[in-house]
Write a structure and sequence with these properties.
Cytochrome Bc1 Complex, Chain A, domain 1, six-stranded mixed beta sheet, 17 helices, 12 strands, 16% strand, globular
Length: 485
């Protein structure tokens, strides 16, 4: 009976239960908002913060050596650069590379130490000490932690005033330089640069002779030649010190005076006769054969400016727009659009007695002709002027280069040493920054006139059998195959 009651109760409840199990109303669909566009609200680019390059403290040693000191105490580091006039311009005719051999030997034993002991002492103190040469002069650079500066200056003084020039070390140095030169001559871009300078300035011009020498010149240079070159070059007449780091200018002056003042015997400043660069007009395109090369080295040299020229600022701006940044005209076309190269560089190469405007790159061998057509087209275009956008970018890029250079002790040293070497004023870096920042569009166009392909020396280093037909097909029929110096 009880079971029946339960069944009847269940049946009676059936409709109610069925009603209670009715499917629920579907929940409203919630649509998630799209993720925010990270580029929707672009940041506002503010005005660049004012930047004023540091000003060097200027002094002079008792023997007349000019000294610039720039304090940078961010880290306990220092760099000393010593420059002297002459350099490879004093290499004897037929013995090109004498100066390069001499500065290499200066680092191979000096004072009371032979080559091994000298190198060991430099390494033990955590110093870097090197020397080099160029067409405007020779240089020595010392760097390390400030607690080692006095000891480093002792080593520098030995290297500059008391090099041993031991016969065995001269032989080793010569072998090293000859091997290095041979290796460099396998690089198309290096050969293009070297050959273009030789053809642009002339074989008798200091800027036309390779500062790292020639195979024949290095072989002929001997111990007597390098001793004579050293005596003519490394003395106080025209020498300049540039010191940067966590230093006290007064202490720097005292330390330099003790080692390079009275102890450094005076000499006569070397006389370098420099003639103006020859005029180039509608010359052939010069080819240097590099059989089997997968790339062609390009180097184009145009009439430039000597250091400190009044037209340098607008020329720099136009040159940066042409090939000084990743978004410059040449790089945008030849690298980004065409895919011919990893990069193209245009720059104002200033020197004491003259300069060049230059364009250099390495191009895939199979597109050499097409690349030269494009390059010449951009050269013609830049001579018509640049846009306001290009002007702003170029000015910003120049400023950024200076800011980045000033971030390191070594960069600051080299920037001021280069100015110091060519006789410019201590405030030249700030003056250049201001001049470039105030360049107008109207000022740029006339300074681009020298980028005239008909006035250029154009050197291409590559597989002549592959690139010559391309050049002729592209309309470049005036070609001359030359042997590099």
């Amino acid at each position: 009976m009880r079971a029946l009651v339960l069944v009847l109760a269940a049946l009676a409840a059936g409709p109610a239960l069925a009603k209670s199990k009715k499917a629920p109303e579907p929940a409203p669909v919630v649509v998630a908002p799209p993720p925010p566009d990270p580029l929707a609200d672009r940041p506002v680019v503010g005005e660049a913060r004012a930047f004023v390059p540091p000003a060097p403290a200027v002094s002079q040693l008792s023997n007349g050596v000019s000294t610039w000191t720039v304090v940078n105490d961010a880290l306990p580091l220092f760099t000393v650069a010593l420059t002297v006039p002459g350099g490879s311009a004093l290499d004897p005719a037929g013995k090109e590379g004498t100066s390069a051999l001499a500065v290499e030997c200066m680092q191979r034993g000096a004072g009371s130490r032979d080559a091994a002991a000298f190198a060991s002492e430099v390494e033990r103190r955590g110093l870097s000490l090197s020397a080099g040469t160029g067409a405007d002069g020779a240089y020595a650079v010392l760097s390390g932690t400030t607690d080692q500066m006095e000891a480093g200056l002792d080593l520098l003084a030995d290297m500059v005033m008391r090099p041993k020039f031991a016969g065995g070390e001269v032989k080793k140095a010569k072998e090293l330089l000859l091997a290095g030169l041979q290796s460099s001559m396998d690089e198309p871009a290096y050969v293009a640069n070297r050959t273009a300078q030789w053809l642009y300035w002339g074989a008798d011009h200091p800027y036309g002779r390779p500062s790292d020498g020639t195979q024949g010149g290095l072989k002929r240079a001997g111990r007597g030649d390098i001793k004579k070159w050293h005596k003519a070059s490394w003395h106080p007449a025209g020498a300049r010190f540039t010191v940067v780091g966590a230093v006290d200018p007064a202490k720097v002056q005292s330390a330099l005076e003790a080692r390079f003042g009275a102890p450094w015997k005076a000499g006569k400043r070397p006389a370098v006769v420099v003639l103006p660069a020859p005029v180039h007009d509608k010359e052939p395109i010069y080819l240097v054969d590099a059989p089997g090369s997968s790339q062609t080295g390009f180097y184009l040299a145009f009439p430039g400016l000597p250091a400190g020229h009044a037209a340098a600022a607008p020329t720099r701006v136009g040159t940066i727009a042409l090939g000084g940044t990743f978004t410059s005209r040449l790089n945008s076309l030849l690298r980004e659009k065409r895919g011919y190269t990893y990069g193209v560089r245009a720059a104002l190469a200033e020197a004491l007695h003259g300069g060049t405007l230059m364009v250099r790159t390495r191009i895939r061998a199979d597109v050499t002709g097409a690349a030269l057509v494009d390059l010449v087209g951009e050269l013609e275009g830049i001579r018509k002027g640049i846009s306001a956008e290009e002007l702003g970018k170029a000015q910003g890029a120049f400023r950024q280069d200076i800011v980045e250079t000033m971030e390191t002790v070594s960069g600051t040293t080299m920037a001021f040493a280069n100015l110091h070497e060519v006789g410019r004023a201590p405030d030249s870096l700030a003056a250049d920054l201001g001049a470039v920042g105030s360049v107008s569009l109207d000022a740029v166009t006339p300074t681009m006139a020298p980028y005239d392909p008909s006035r250029a020396v154009i050197v291409l280093v590559g597989d002549v059998a592959k690139i010559k037909p391309q050049l002729e097909a592209a309309g470049f029929n005036k070609l001359s195959v030359v042997t590099p110096p």
